[in-house]
Amino acid sequence: MTDTAATRRAWATGDAMIHYHDTEWGAPSRDDQHLFEMLVLEGA
Q1: Cβ-count burial of 22 within 10 angstroms (0-12 exposed, 13-18 middle, 19+ buried)?
Q2: Residue 27 pLDDT grade (very low, low, confident, very high; cuts 50, 70, 90)
Q3: What is the pLDDT of residues 30-43, one digit of tens each?
Q4: CA geometry: angle at 2 spanning 30 and 35, to 5°?
Q5: Which residues have C-beta within 8 Å of that of residue 29, sequence separation ≥ 6?
Q6: Per-residue pLDDT tens digits for 9-26
Q7: For residue 5, how far is the Cα from the chain centroid?
Q8: Around Cβ 17, how many Cβ atoms within 10 Å?
Q9: Three-state secondary structure of the chain
Q10: Which residues lie below 8 Å from residue 11, measured CB to CB, with a gap of 6+?
Q11: Contacts of 35 (CB under 8 A, 6+ apart)
């Protein structure tokens, strides 16, 4: 699912953040290693 510019969050401004918003942010994950990585990276 790809969001349009009108439905993206305000923090998704640069190319990298738009890519992250459209492909990873809000997508459910059941992989323990991925969840731990996100916990560490998002908490930093």
Answers
A1: middle
A2: confident
A3: 999 999 998 999 88
A4: 20
A5: 35, 38
A6: 999 999 999 998 998 888
A7: 15
A8: 14
A9: CCCCCCCCCCCCCCHHHHHHHHHCCCCCCCCHHHHHHHHHHHHC
A10: 17, 21
A11: 29
CA-to-CA dists, residue 3 to 9, 12, 36, angstroms? 10, 11, 26
Per-chain mean pLDDT for the chain: 86
What's the confidence (pLDDT) of residue 36? 95
Amino acid at the residue 40: V
Q: Are 38 and 29 in contact (CB under 8 A)?
A: yes
